[in-house]
Design brief:
218 residues; Rossmann fold; seven-stranded mixed sheet; 40% helix; SAM-dependent_MTases_sf
């Protein structure tokens, strides 16, 4: 098995990405809508969208609240261009950053809402905890974080995919960098990680098959 670098994986799949997500990923016709329902209908709120891709969640969020201001961070330039094409009437509300959200400085107490949709199931606990610390810091005092993602149904399931990822990387001589391979975590582990960085409450809002929506409040 070969592993593809994350930015290359998504840059080369931009034209078929939305069709793939909506037609071949269980629950995609539901979870973007359910995620958007959690966005307050408040004028001009600031949203941080991590791994925003082509903006499938933003399509639904703009339907609910067309006034939101969005900072989107994604590795794929091609996908960010797709957002601009789809929402050319919202360019003044969009600040799209080509970068890894692990590297990007999110700032302090800026955002009302942070969210990530189907993007964090590729990373280790340690990487996620470091990212969650940044997210927590970037939120206003009453802010909250939404994570909509593929999550492992059991600890054994999680352990297997992390073990396979290590095995494949070792065989290929990969020692660092972000590569496209699914390593989902259990809801329990996700919840513990979010509590660990300071979120007061973490609630499972919705689930369909292995896709779960978590709501973490500061």
């Amino acid at each position: 098995m070969n592993l593809e670098k994350m930015n290359s994986f998504f840059n080369t799949r931009v034209n078929e990405y939305e069709e793939h997500m909506m037609n071949y990923v269980d629950g995609a016709d539901k979870y973007y809508v359910e995620t958007a329902k959690l966005i307050p209908k408040v004028n001009g709120i600031n949203i941080l969208d991590l791994g925003c891709g082509t903006g499938l969640e933003l399509d639904e969020i703009f339907k609910r609240n067309p006034t939101v201001k969005v900072k989107g961070v994604d590795l794929s330039q091609n996908m960010l261009e797709k957002i601009k094409e789809k929402h050319s009437d919202k360019l003044e509300q969009l600040d799209l950053i080509i970068d890894s959200y692990f590297n990007y400085d999110m700032g302090d107490a800026i955002f009302d809402v942070a969210l990530s949709v189907q993007t964090l199931h590729h990373f280790t606990h340690e990487e996620k905890i470091g990212l969650y610390k940044k997210i927590f810091k970037s939120l206003k005092q009453e802010g909250f974080y939404i994570e909509t993602d593929y999550m492992a149904p059991t600890q054994e399931y999680e352990d297997y995919y992390f073990s396979e990822n290590k095995r494949i990387r070792k065989e290929l001589g990969i020692t660092e960098g972000f590569y496209h391979y699914d390593t989902p975590c259990t809801v329990k582990n996700q919840t513990q990680m979010l509590h660990k960085v300071g979120f007061k409450t973490v609630e499972k809002i919705w689930q369909y098959e292995n896709t779960v929506i978590l709501l973490a409040k500061k």
